[in-house]
Amino acid sequence: MSSGRFELICEIEPPTRPDLTHARHQIGVLARVSDAFLVPDNHLGRATVSSVAVAHEVMAMGGRAIACLNSRDRNVLGFRRDLLTAAAYGVREFLLVHGDRPESGQRSDDVTVGRMIEEIRTFGNGPDVAGDTPFRVSVASRLGPLARFKAGADAVFAQISYDVDALVRWRESLQFDGRVYAGLMVLASPGMAHKLSAQNAQLSVPPGVVELLERDRTAGVSLACELAQRIRESGAFDGVHLVTVSRYREVALRLEQDGWARRTR
């Protein structure tokens, strides 16, 4: 199923203030092991610096960037503005998502993920915007059938899971020709594990992992790195999308020790 080089895509925490210092530090630390950086868009329903602008910063630091764009906050005109901005900055890769519930509780329904794909394929990839370098489109998916309108994407990002066997079974059932990435998140605390389990049954954290976190709050780093290794060894995926949260320093160190340094792959 997997073809080509296995990739590690690290998600960084986007700035909620007009200061890119922390974002730059994450990029610099994770650059030793990461093949690309995913930049969230208005993360967790909170206003953040534009994902396109931060993606441009990633590229300025020598990295490959994937800008996340959510349908929640946009209308068609606003989305076309984002595509023009991305083209001007040289940002060519997107992950399109539905978007977390905003803090206000209200969302715009003017643009769906399907409409965003359509706009990229027509307006965005037209000669007046993308020129000779078309945008690459990724979509997110639960561990179930892929929605028909997502089938034409270039890549699929699977939702976060702590069950490698379930991930592999889902990948084996997926009819998709593009690249597919498994999703992992570093668990920073028992409270975070409980919250994820309560939000979505498919994000449920095994009880044994919660107990381990209660004894050792750093256990989430080891767990995520071990799961990433198992996913790579399965041969079922083209890479891992890893959400490091506040543990990015520990993650980078552990992955480098485990042989994930880019220069050795």
Count of helical stretches:
9
> What Rg is obtained from the alpha carbons, in whole angstroms?
18 Å
SS content category: alpha/beta
Using the coordinates shown, work out and report the CATH topology. TIM Barrel
Major β-sheet strand ordering: 1-2-3-4-5-6-7-8
> What proportion strand?
15-25%
Instruction: Please estimate the helix content.
Output: 25-40%
Number of domains: 1
| Biggest sheet character | 8 strands, parallel, barrel
Under the CATH scheme, the architecture is Alpha-Beta Barrel
Number of strands: 8
Low-confidence stretches at least 5 residues in length (pLDDT < 50)? none
Q: Note the gap between the termini.
A: 20 Å
Q: Class in CATH?
A: Alpha Beta
Order of helices and strands: EHEHEHEHEEHEHHHEH
**Net shape:** globular
What order do the helices and strands come in, and which of them pair?
Blueprint: E1 7-11, H1 21-30, E2 36-39, H2 51-60, E3 65-70, H3 76-89, E4 93-97, H4 113-124, E5 136-141, E6 155-160, H5 164-173, E7 179-185, H6 190-199, H7 207-215, H8 219-234, E8 239-243, H9 248-257
Parallel strand pairs: 1-2, 1-8, 2-3, 3-4, 4-5, 5-6, 6-7, 7-8
Task: Explain how this protein is built.
With 265 residues, the chain is of the alpha/beta class. The protein has one domain (7-264): TIM Barrel, CATH 3.20.20.220. The chain contains nine helices and eight strands. The radius of gyration is 18 Å and the shape is globular. The relative contact order is 0.15.
